[in-house]
Design goal:
PspA-associated domain-containing protein, PspA-assoc_dom, alpha+beta, single chain, 3 helices
């Protein structure tokens, strides 16, 4: 799976990591629904760090279609709310 972190680039991520990422996504969704800004910020950074750690960066000149687009680390709670589907940022 190709994942884009807005403002940073793309990484190739094995589908086997989706379970771990979905747990963080569920936490992020709950924090957003409750308006927990500090929890949201912490979990968003943890999610992005996990994608960076588990994924393999693609070259800057690679233009692969992204299957998943994640917000930048400085995204606001309201901005991320606009990106959400019913399943959160990560489907599944």
């Amino acid at each position: 799976m190709i994942v884009r972190i807005m403002g940073e680039g793309q990484v190739r991520l094995d589908d086997s990591h989706l379970t771990e990422l979905n747990k963080l996504d569920d936490e992020l969704l709950a924090e957003m629904e409750s308006g927990d800004e500090s929890g949201f910020r912490r979990t968003l950074n943890t999610l992005l760090d996990a994608v960076r750690r588990l994924g393999t960066p693609l070259p800057d000149d690679a233009l692969e279609p992204s299957e998943l687009i994640l917000p930048s680390p400085d995204a606001t709670l309201e901005g991320v709310r606009e990106l959400l589907s019913d399943e959160g940022l990560i489907p599944g």
